[in-house]
Amino acid sequence: MEHLPLFIKIKHRPCLIVGGGGVAARKARVLLARGARLTIVAPQLGEELAQLQSQFVWQNDVFEEHYLDEQFLVVAATDKKEVNARVYQSANLRGLLVNKADDSKRSAVIFPSIVERFPLQLAFSTGGDAPWLARLLRARLNALLPKHWGDLSRVAGKLRHKVQASFASSEQRRRFWARAQDDATLNNLLAQGETAAAERWLEQAITKPQLGEVILVGAGPGDPELLTVKALNELQKAEVVLYDQLVSPEIMALIRPEAELIAVGKKAGHHSVPQDRINELLVEQAQTGKRVVRLKGGDPFMFGRGAEELEILKAAGIAYQVVPGITAAAGATAYAGIPLTHRDFAQSAVFITGHSKVDGKEPNWASLAQSRQTLVIYMGLMRSAHIQQRLIEHGLSANTPVALIERGTTPEQRVVRGSLQELASLAEQVVSPSLMVIGEVTTLADSLAWFKPQQGAALPAEAQEQYA
């Protein structure tokens, strides 16, 4: 990387653009918006620059070196390469900041792509290698960045010294601002343009005690791109993360680097952390005033004991939120080309778990053994023989198609298919985490499968130990 990203105060500084066309106009708009004292040298001005003529000095001339006198920044933006080269060479010999519009590789400075919510600015560049990628990133950030964050930045600037005086450590200040930014009342005030009311709200919030909070976050079925935007935001704000072992390394890498990580899932040679201990950890961490994320695979409320954890938090008076995730039944089946419902094959889908509490009752097998429905079973591998037997006993045809989706939505995804009478033997061919799907819809994978996992990819050694 040859260029160092810097923000330079350009207001009132003398800047020169050589050229009068569209490229010059784009550079001029950027400089004028930041208060530059702009001169443009060009024999004629294009329509865009002509509309801005009252905002700069126009020298109706060809480039001569004396126009570089006392300039701070120079832009070579003509449609003639030889002129741009002469401007660049002359400015470079004088030690001036110079941008050569047709050759970013040789420019002393380059104009980055910018996303603005004044005074907030995000600037980025590919160094001239892939301008299309910079434009794509700018479009995405423009869509994601709240429109009122410029007002938030201005209000925060007014109260910065008061916050510094009220909170002794940088961690306390960071926590205050993270929670303020997340507050619905403050965001509504700013979105409505009521900045004075937002400022008063923040002043009052400074004096309130900082209470802990737990956010249950669904990490989805495996593919990190299936993580929701809200889930990503919470991972970036977390101070403590209690995570399940099945959460992918790619998603773990998105967590705020300073956050404390606590593994509470299954590891090789060890039992899972007991649920009672997980509950205690959540309460203990939140009672210290921290923002705690409980990161679960899939969706927290889909066989994830999320409700049990919330009941404990509610009893302890701990504030909480829930961020839904894409559950395996939706994610893994979609990646396998298996629709959960279809007008010709299944008018309903039923989700059950192969695990239950020790004293749990057997499911209603008669209702599960219905035709023209899709049966999705989580964590069912160890009970596959029992499931097979009970469904056939209650009338479901032994020839009913089934599919086992191993490591769904990941590069190691593998789909094993057969009939209900083969379910127990099929289960011996896959490892956890695997999803069991029973019903006619599984036959559609022949024509609808689209995801191309790594052919012949083996389960990583670490994962093989983890799931053993």
Automatic annotation (TrEMBL):
Region Precorrin-2 dehydrogenase / sirohydrochlorin ferrochelatase: start-end pairs: 1-202
Residues reported in the UniProt entry to bind NAD(+): G22, V23, P43, Q44
Q: Can you tell which superkingdom this protein's organism belongs to? A: Bacteria
Task: Report domain Sirohaem synthase dimerisation positions.
Answer: 148-206
**Active site (record annotation):** D244, K266
UniProt xrefs under PANTHER family: SIROHEME SYNTHASE (PTHR45790:SF1), SIROHEME SYNTHASE-RELATED (PTHR45790)
Instruction: State what protein this is by name.
Output: Siroheme synthase
